[in-house]
Amino acid sequence: MEGFLNINKAAGWTSHDVVAKVRTLLKITKVGHAGTLDPQATGVLPICLGKATKLSEFLLHTDKKYRVVMKLGVVTDTQDADGQVLMRSETTAIDLGAVEKVLKAFVGRIQQIPPMFSAIKVKGQPLYKMARRGQVVERSAREVTIYSLDVLEMNESEVTFDVVCSRGTYIRTLCADAGERLGVGAHCQKLERRRCGPFSIEAAVTLEELESALSEEKHHRLVYGLSEVLGHLPELVIRTERAERVLHGVPLGCQDIYWPEATFKKGDLFRVVTPDMGLVALVRALMGSLEVQTQRPHTPLFKIEKVLVEELKLKSRNFTAV
Q1: Would you call 17 a catalytic residue per the annotation?
Q2: 33 with 47: CB under 8 angstroms?
């Protein structure tokens, strides 16, 4: 079995727990996930099956949407509800307008200092292990992007909001930083991931639902194929006779492709297809579409990121996957 599952993770499960459970249920060894969720967080956890595990890195780079409940007036050492309380403050002077103003100020590119209770490694050791020993080490700020943030409601000291953000964003830290700006402190009380790339909470299934589908031999309906999952990427059509270059990892130039109508920039990722072979590979632009005009005809324009033909039945005997 190969492809992806859209699992709705329950609170109390680690991402590794879910992977282990799916491995047991499906009786396959190659199972992974794309994007760790904290144990108490819930929601979308993409699970990769078989050769699809090779594509998890591309899902990690997609944007994500979360529904967050932020608790004002309580600061914890982990920045979430599982931690030890470090400080309590009165929040009666804080109204919805003040909260919205502070949270909206985070939209755009921001700098975040990762929390001590995180899996980031410093000198080869995860920060959370140091934190459990009472150590606090200096961490470098990282740039992340908050694409949108919408406050849904405020119920006394609890604020519920939706946020769409880039990979690497710590929602716990966003809550802690917002609480600091409000002058009362805060932590992330509840967190639900509602979207991860092409996977949404509306289409997600629980482990119980997966197990039920297995008992009825309907589990195959829950597996997403590669084309479905990568469908959000723009398409680059190559000439069939040039496909062998892709299979051998040779970068693509103007002579290999049917030029895309849309503009693109350096670093953009494309799905590569041929008219009669379907999905072949993923490639990344080496320059923007405006720069191409100044290049020579045989200048490499797209580098091969991942060859996918081993997952297809090739229609031509002349092409061999490597």
Answers
A1: no
A2: yes
In words, the CATH class of domain 3-62+198-228 is: alpha beta
Element (H, E) at 205: none
- The closest alpha carbon to 309, from 283, 284, 279, belongs to 279
Q: Does domain 65-191 have CATH number 1.10.15.40?
A: no
Neighbouring C-beta atoms of residue 178, cutoff 10 Å: 22
Q: How many CB atoms lie within 10 A of CB 85?
A: 12
| Cα separation, 161 vs 158, whole angstroms | 10
- What residues contact residue 10 under an 8 Å CB cut-off, 6+ apart? 42, 206, 207
4 confidence band (pLDDT: 50, 70, 90): very high
Stretch(es) of the chain classified as CATH 2.30.130.10: 233-311
Stretch(es) of the chain classified as CATH 3.30.2350.10: 3-62+198-228, 65-191
Q: Are strands 74-76 and 186-196 parallel, antiparallel or unpaired?
A: unpaired
Q: Does domain 233-311 have CATH number 3.30.460.80?
A: no
Confidence of residue 322 (pLDDT cuts 50, 70, 90): very low
Contact 60, 35 (CB under 8 A): yes
Model pTM above 0.85 = no
CB-based contacts of 121: which residues, under 8 Å, 6+ apart?
A: 127
Lowest mean pLDDT among 102-106, 125-129, 157-161, 177-181: 125-129
Distances (CA, A) of 1 to 41, 48, 201: 28, 10, 23
Candidate list 17, 38, 95, 268, residue with the active-site label: 38
Quickly count: other Cβ atoms within 10 Å of residue 41's Cβ: 22
Q: At 30, which amino acid appears?
A: K
According to the model, what pLDDT value does residue 65 have?
Answer: 96
Structure tokens at 207: 């482990």
Query: Residue 217: what pLDDT?
Result: 87
